[in-house]
Design brief:
9 strands
């Protein structure tokens, strides 16, 4: 498994490839940190699932620190977290919770991430840009009915800059509430105390102001991840929220309430 920007462009653009200047290809390779990403993938190559996520963190010299783990008695949980970074936070949660729960975890992700083969054993694919397949829907239901712990970022996309300048998630989707109630899983709120660079959030803000619908800022996420190398990531784990305390008749409002609970756990400078 290896990232090769030049090869992808050559295969996808076919006869138009010859018109792409070489400096553009080299620029893309630098922007996505191709060499470093390939070093991380190489470290993961002979691992599976939770071990692969842990190996990636080791390659980046990243330490995961969590407070509040004492809030977790035995049970079947749905972990819901804010999504500030856009990839690294997922790796960290897989490693943290996977190692705590004997590697019995599943994670709802964009189906494009299924290309990361070492993590396929953890990932449950969701099609964010088209119709959800019946196979994927069945896999999700089976995972929810199992003894695996369940992790999700209800916002879907990573955090963005708010009008007041705070960095926070977009609207949380109702699916986490619906799944929790249907499968009688208590919800565990998690606040991840981290941020990407101001450049990333400002770029996303101006892209939206210019009316560009495609999230072109995502091209910078690999570099944002590499910037975190050598750092310590901090999670705050809250007390489980009983599934039968959720108002199943108003899942959107409950999802918004869960989002508020997560951000209420943040150190005051991080609150939206």
């Amino acid at each position: 498994m290896k990232i090769d920007v030049d090869k992808v462009l050559r295969e996808r653009l076919s006869k138009h490839y010859k018109y792409i200047p070489r400096f553009v290809v080299r620029w893309l390779e630098r922007v996505i940190c191709q060499d470093k990403l390939n070093a991380i993938l190489l470290k993961m190559a002979d691992k599976n699932s939770v071990d692969a996520a842990t190996a990636a963190l080791d390659e980046m010299d990243i330490t995961v620190n969590a407070s509040g783990l004492e809030n977790l008695p035995n049970g079947r949980y749905m972990f819901v977290s804010n999504h500030p970074l856009g990839g690294l936070d997922g790796l960290a949660l897989i490693s943290l919770m996977g190692n705590r729960y004997d590697k019995k975890i599943k994670f709802l992700v964009n189906d494009l991430l299924m290309a990361v083969e070492p993590l396929r054993g953890v990932f449950l694919p969701v099609n964010k840009y088209g119709k959800q397949s019946r196979i994927n829907a069945t896999q999700i239901e089976e995972a929810l009915a199992s003894d695996n712990q369940f992790i999700t970022f209800p916002a879907g996309l990573c955090s963005r800059m708010q009008p007041d300048g705070a960095i926070a998630d977009l609207t949380w989707q109702k699916s986490a509430v619906v799944h929790a109630v249907n499968h009688q899983r208590d919800i565990v709120p998690i606040f991840f105390d981290a941020k990407n660079s101001r450049f990333f959030y400002r770029f996303a803000k101006w892209r939206k102001k210019l009316g560009i619908k495609f999230n072109i800022e995502l091209i910078f996420l690999p570099k944002e991840m590499i910037k975190q190398c050598g750092s310590t990531l901090h999670f705050i784990v809250g007390e489980p929220i009983p599934w039968n305390s959720l108002d199943a008749s108003h899942p959107k409002q409950e999802a918004a309430r869960l989002r508020d609970i997560v951000y209420s756990m943040a150190p005051s400078p991080s609150k939206p």
